[in-house]
Design brief:
about 350 residues, alpha/beta, Rossmann fold, 7-stranded parallel beta sheet, 12 helices, globular
Length: about 350
């Protein structure tokens, strides 16, 4: 099987090479997959993509013409893939459903503490020889009410960590977890109640038709004044234009974002020489109460090794003519064993 890895980043290539135990024929492309770059896949029967690659219907049809049959997504989220169209074309798509929920949850907590304790401001001040505490008064997490939107693998770890801080935890999820309720006192409620009463809201839901712009002006308007919101899930869950309005009017006291709805072409790249043109992102970056990280929550050694291992395990399973448990489509698999 010949494999082309799109959006290959320098920091992940060593992990991918290490996980390629049986030495599949692999090539790396630092370009993102889209309708223009799909032609790079000519001669490859398998590709691997990341979160900002475009696997819409048009791109999938191009890939199909070039002979691509297998698509391994190096992430849990697959909202960038038209699964229905892939299935119609007889293509196989699989993701990495669990690589390290701890990496994302721990990053979310790190962002929360950075905002609550004003660590970025403190760091800037002391580097300017200002050791005053006048602008640095924060608050305890202990006793605060935290609303979790989504309690899957990552949200569950977040609940566990916040329980350790002594937080009261509310949650909104279409599939409530009795285990979380029993172990950590998580109380499930309607989204409106969570929004109205939470001091802190942390987002851990996938992006789909039901969750796109789930957080919008209607929900922001119902929030408790001074709420802090953390988003390490998907940028499209939040309507950024509405968010900025409520950051300006003070309803939202602070926002921590590791993802952005228009991050494609911006995040994962160095724009230090030319800068960025996106007006919404530029405004967010100018706000002292907004903390931005460039989709790095997943980037731990453990997570990268697990992503690489699962990716090649999936490809090996396909090569053997077997459907892996993490496959998202349901087409018959032809054995390619011996054709590395």
């Amino acid at each position: 099987m010949r494999i082309l890895v799109f959006s290959a980043k320098e920091f992940e290539i060593s992990y991918l090479n290490k996980a390629n135990h049986i030495h599949f024929d692999v090539e790396f492309a630092n370009k993102q997959l889209d309708i223009e770059t799909a032609a790079l896949a000519k001669g490859f029967n398998c590709i691997s993509i990341f979160t900002n690659d475009d696997c819409s219907a048009a791109v999938l049809n191009e890939l199909h013409l070039f002979g691509v049959k297998y698509i391994a997504v190096r992430a849990a989220g697959f909202d960038n893939v038209d699964i229905h169209e892939a299935g119609r074309l007889g293509m196989h798509v699989a993701n990495v459903p669990e690589y390290s929920p701890y990496s994302i949850a721990e990053h979310a907590v790190g962002m929360l503490l950075t905002l609550v304790r004003k660590i970025t401001t403190a760091n800037e001040q002391v580097h300017a020889n200002n050791f005053s505490l006048n602008n640095l008064v924060g608050f305890d997490l202990h006793g605060k009410r935290v609303g979790l939107i989504g309690t899957g693998r990552i949200g569950s770890i977040m609940a566990k960590i916040l329980h350790g801080f002594g937080c009261e935890i509310l949650a909104y999820d279409i599939a409530p977890s009795q285990d979380l309720s029993e172990k950590y006192g998580v109380r499930y409620c309607a989204l409106n109640e969570l929004s109205l009463t939470s001091d802190i809201i942390s987002i851990h839901t996938p992006l789909n038709e039901q969750t796109r712009y789930l957080l919008n002006k209607s929900l922001f308007a119902s929030m408790k004044k001074g709420v802090i919101i953390i988003n390490t899930a998907r940028g499209g869950v939040v309507n950024t234009s509405d968010l900025i309005t409520y950051l300006r009017n003070g309803i939202i006291a602070a926002y921590g974002m590791d993802v952005y709805e228009k991050e494609k072409g911006i995040f994962f790249f160095d724009h230090s020489l030319k800068g960025i043109a996106d007006p919404m992102l530029k405004e967010l970056l100018s706000m002292k109460n907004v903390l931005v990280t460039p989709h790095q929550a997943f980037a731990t050694r453990e997570a990268l090794m697990n992503i690489a291992t699962t990716t090649f395990s999936t490809i090996l399973t396909w090569s053997a003519g077997v459907r892996p448990d993490n496959e998202l489509t349901h087409e018959p698999v032809l054995s390619l064993m011996g054709n590395k």
